[in-house]
Model the fold of this input.
Amino acid sequence: MKTVFLDIDGVLNYTDWYVSERNPGNLDGQEGEIDPMCVERVVRICQETGAKIVISSDWRVSSWGGTITRLERVGMPSELIIDKTPYPWGVSFRKYMLDNENEYCTRGAEINMWLREHPECTNFVILDDRRDFTDDQQPHFVHINPKVGITDDNVDIAIMILNHH
Done:
């Protein structure tokens, strides 16, 4: 199974989106906060590679159902989203960190924990505007510029990683 670890802030929404003429407006905290064009780009990655999505964004923490609904509203098929990375303050994550004392509590550690619990994952890509990933994850990491969000060039790199690693 191929997996896309997806951050939301900085990837599906971004600094320039909030002043874009295409943004319908962030009227009630629900509308206009995600660029549908960015969602289309992530969907393209999944379509061209057969990958599924694991949400690694802080959005996974608040309302999981609300996050899925908000993504669906802007064109993300819910069947593409299969899971979320573990919370850094959960019991299983704390045990993982104790067992892996050389690892820092980072988004990369959260992804490593998910990967260890899912050996069926044969390849993955990380789409994120943060950079706190392990050395082993660097060949799978596509840094997204938080000013512009995910671009077609980022998509091409992600597809290459998923199809050729």
